[in-house]
Design a protein that fits this description.
Elements: E1 2-5, E2 8-11, H1 19-29, H2 38-46, E3 49-55, E4 58-67, E5 72-80, H3 89-98, E6 108-111, H4 117-121
Parallel strand pairs: 5-6
Antiparallel strand pairs: 1-2, 2-3, 3-4, 4-5
Protein name: GNAT family N-acetyltransferase
Pfam family, one: Acetyltransf_1
Domain N-acetyltransferase: 8-140
């Protein structure tokens, strides 16, 4: 699946992904995956439904869904490069992804965000109704002691 709008390409084609650019953003810029190893990024892309935003053959945005394509999908690693923010690209990416054939009819779509609640609310996301039912194992700063 691919669409083009205002010189930007939105695609689910993994062959277009610039893994080095995604790795750079996640390991150097993001707050959630600082120092993530390149091999971990590669493995996460291989095992997820991934989407990219491209302009002039440059990776300007990325997102991936961890999903079984039947009942559940978890959205993660969403970003738009700083110089392209404010153009509505994250909203267009969400609209492109949410209607993807592999993400239809699922029982649960989930994500975690620090600061993009308003974006995700526009697509039907809300705070958990029963957060006490949710549990997790979270390893804080897992990559901080590791280097590629």
């Amino acid at each position: 699946m691919e669409i083009s709008e205002n010189g930007f390409i939105f695609s689910d084609n993994k062959e277009l992904i610039k893994i080095d650019a995604v790795h750079h953003y996640l390991s150097e810029v993001s707050y959630w995956a600082k120092n993530i190893p390149l091999e971990t990024v590669k493995k996460s892309i291989e095992n997820s439904l991934c989407f990219g935003i491209y302009k002039d053959n440059e990776q300007v945005g990325f997102a991936r869904w961890v999903t079984d394509k039947a009942t559940f999908a978890y959205l993660c690693d969403v970003y738009v490069a700083q110089q392209y923010r404010g153009l509505g690209l994250a909203k267009k990416l969400m609209a492109f992804m949410i209607f993807h054939p592999d993400l239809q009819g699922l029982r649960r779509y989930q994500l975690t965000t620090l600061d993009a609640h308003e974006l995700y609310r526009q697509f039907g996301f809300s705070a958990l109704k029963n957060p006490e039912r949710q549990m997790a194992i979270v390893t804080e700063n897992i990559y901080s002691a590791r280097k590629d």
